[in-house]
Amino acid sequence: MPKPNPRHPNYPIPSGDVLRAKGWRQEGLLRLLENVLSVGEDPDNLIVYAALGKAARNWAAHRAIVKALTDMDEDQTLVIQSGKPVGLLRTHAKAPLVIMANCNIVGQWAKAEVFYELQRKGLICWGGLTAGAWQYIGSQGVIQGTYEVFMRIAEKRFGGSLAGRFILTAGLGGMGGAQPLAGRMAGAAILCVDIDPARAAARKAVGYLEHVAPDLDTALAMIDEAVKDKRATSIGLVGNAAEIYPEIARRGIVPDIVTDQTSAHDLVYGYVPKGMSLDQVKGLRDDGQGQLMAASRASIVEHVSAMLEFQKQGSEVFDNGNLIRTQAREGGVANAFDIPIFTEAYLRPLFARAIGPFRWMALSGEESDIARIDDLVLQMFPDNRIVTNWIRLARENVPFEGLPARIAWLGHGERTELALAVNKLVAAGELKGPIAFSRDHLDAGAMAHPNIMTERMKDGSDAIADWPLLDAMLLTSSMADLVVIHSGGGGYAGYMTSCGVTLVADGTEAGAERLDHALTNDTSLGVIRYADAGYDESLDEIEKKSIGYVRVG
Ligand code: NAD
């Protein structure tokens, strides 16, 4: 029986041991599709997160996907093109059940305006990174990444602790909603600005945000008090970041850390220009795109100018992966890229060892399955400080959304070991059901994005998209259950290509073989990608873990 979903009552959370499909592999993927809608931002319109990231092209396509997953045999492969199923073909039982290519537009045409036109004609949709691949697990999917970034800054700038430190950010949407909880878990006093009161209310309802302040003065007073007491807290404020950031700067207040996670990547469907209501913006999306783009860009110029001012005054300022610097530079802020990107600034040494956002979902819908795996992780990796610290913190602080899930930054070998151990627990009947494994597309070998993931690579290979394409081919030949190639849509059109993968640990030997090959090869390619770019950490990893890197020259 599905479980009730208070946030979206029409999208209950899949659970239980009754299969609608012919096996757990198919059923697992079906539950993940249901789950991305149950934790999504606007499920009635199939929107999952990041303004336009969709689970399927339209409702007819969605129904056809559900029917295919329900009816298909294990020796068939469902082929999905930009959120619409186009083929159910005979392959073999070790082939992926689902392959997808979402939103890949030929280079010279890969522009926001072309994407919007193709979308209007119903020919394409953007899958975000994890929406169209049915891997999204709500704000919990990025929370460890956000937390680790804050902690890296704590180590770099603040003696290892954010107690008594003020973080200013914006965006309380699907991904940005992780910020208040991550900031509080890191010990800071965090202020999160969002223009949409419903988003602030939603984050408060799920326990990610503690308070919503009625106005800026109150919000700043609450932050001030928490900073003085060195008390961790999260405060939401309804307002436009393009107004609030400059106003805070004007008052001479200098936060310790400043970032932003509005959907600045999309000037039409994401960012809300200052002075406009949400309804005004909606009204302009079809017929006033040019006006809306100009207004959004003008506001982003003010927003980023304030971020640069904070940087000048000594704040640690970074771009949190929303293309806000790129938009500002287009708008004339020549030094927008003085703001570093979070990947290069804080996380690259981890990615160079293919340590990244690995995650698992309890397909039974039972929280006890995640608790059992938490124990297993602590037992298997007692010396991994990042992961043991995270699991302890997460089990205490991170509320589940949708299917119970956990994220943990594990690397090469560790992911495979854990998944195989979990597969054994499923086989032994120690869990209530199978577990699905996946990872963010923001992973070592999985993403080319010259303004986010691969900015300023050591060898200048930032814009080369061969790596995610190779990853997808490798994962397909390594028997993964679902493999997807995504490129950017909306404002991200032309900016990125990524690869996603999902596997179902169903407790079988065949399942173990799939997990072993796919997870090992995925992280192998990740390490190789960075080794090829000249990163010492990767060469070390290759030697220590005997990864099959072919070194030329
Ligand atoms: P979302 O569309 O669900 O939420 C964006 C939020 O920004 C909304 O709540 C909206 O009301 C708010 N907003 C828009 N304009 C505003 C303004 N001017 N002032 C204040 N609030 C404003 O998007 P999301 O899923 O939360 O993603 C946010 C951004 O982060 C996207 O650009 C996304 O691509 C990026 N992202 C980064 C990472 C990462 O790893 N760092 C991961 C996923 C997504």
UniProtKB/TrEMBL annotation:
Q: Which domain of life is it from?
A: Bacteria
Q: Which gene encodes it?
A: hutU
Required cofactors, per record?
NAD(+)
E.C. number: 4.2.1.49
Q: What does UniProt give as the signal peptide span?
A: none
- Which of this chain's residues are annotated to bind NAD(+)? 174-176, 194, 199, 240-241, 261-265, 271-272, 490
The subcellular location is: Cytoplasm
- Recorded protein name is Urocanate hydratase
